[in-house]
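Example record for the data management plan.
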Amino acid sequence: MPFYQKRGEIPNKRHIQFRDSKKNLYWEELISREGFSNIYSNVYHLNPPTGIEAVGKMNKFKIASLDEAHRHRHIKTAELNSTGDLVSSRIPLLHNSDIIISKSHVTESMKSLYRNGCADELLFIHSGTGTFKSNFGNMHIKPGDYLLIPRGVIWQIDINEEMRVLAIESFGPIKTPDRYRNEFGQLLEHSPFSERDIITPEFSDAINDTSIEVEVKLNAGIQTYSYQYHPFDLIGWDGYYFPYIFNINDFMPITGKIHQPPPVHQTFQGRGFVICSFVPRLFDYHPESIPAPYAHSNVDSDEIIYYVEGEFMSRRGIEQGSITHHPMGLPHGPQPGKIEESIGASETNEVAVMIDAFKPLSIARSCIEIDDDKYPFSWTDK
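Corresponding structural encoding:
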């Protein structure tokens, strides 16, 4: 997120001597994107952040994909057999070379620290509460939160109550939409949210423990490292690179006289995909408007919608936690009767997260038992 933040104690210049009361040097670490050519933060440790005492085994994994018919899908993720912490309970559902979409039913707190070394993570908190802890500080998490964790951030989550989480891993940076930012990175006046809505970490006291395990996610699997010192030993940091939270209920929908297309709901962008937020809003006010969306052939994208709560105007038989997958090359739209049913409606109470991927998504084998095989025929007028 391109705006400046500062926490704790930092020197008045970068890369100069910075000592404690006993004249011991603090350890400066630069965390940066795209080498030295993009956003970065400078963080200051009590101890060297590089001290590794042991390298564990690589826990390898590969997402097994289905090789089935190209068709619309209704994936009932509420029925997943998923337990564990936020990482171990994660079950991949759809993926391509840009993105992995997973679901977690989180039943316990994380015991180890975790770092994704190959992807940004966007965690949508459907239900439950907890505390996100990181080397940048802590944040309370609650239903509706988008928790954005740039790659390289070290973190763990303690839960207060069991959580349902939609997890999106992006192999490129996840950003706010270009069209809603000015040349300096500030969100524009007509953006549906602003920096006031962004929650950033609260700084906490440095942890000076020793012998700490960190699980690092890599392309081939998760590698465990034993560090000599706890990575949360920061006494200060500043910069533009940090985790943050934006809650979906703070998204201010853009409405119009006639039906507005999905891009007005865009909240994030990544390499090869966009993320949109559907929230309660007033419908169109043209006297002959049709609030339900028109049929659409998304010839260049796969559309994913994750249903959070409320009644979605164009679909029936959808539950909380359902995912619909409308692949490129096939038209989709309101089911029979839903267009007429929407006429005259003044507002909607729906909450949903939409992901449009610009490369075809593969379906993970974990979807076999929770895929409604009758869904492709739900548009027949019978």
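Summary line stored alongside the record: The CA atoms of residues 19 and 101 lie 44 Å apart.
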